[in-house]
Amino acid sequence: MSKVIFPPPSLSYRELVKNKPEEIAKELEAIFLKEILKEAFKPMLSEKSFTTRLYYDAFLEGVSEKLASAGGVGIAKFLLEHYFKSEE
Fold first, then answer.
1. pLDDT value at position 13?
2. Would you give the DSSP letter of residue 6?
């Protein structure tokens, strides 16, 4: 049995967040928007096949990323103003 050893990550999470706070905030907003959209589409997809639901999941992920990058609903802005600024 061979033993696989993984190297330590190059940046810790804390360092990554400090280097790219805008990207992290937009990603979090995109995840939140995707979950909201999934709940909105749930009644329509309840009787659909697995493949169709998988397609809609990918579609909603793309839509949520575009919404977040276009300004979103203000979650990323709130995080940048209140959370990331307080850590500096």
1. 67
2. P
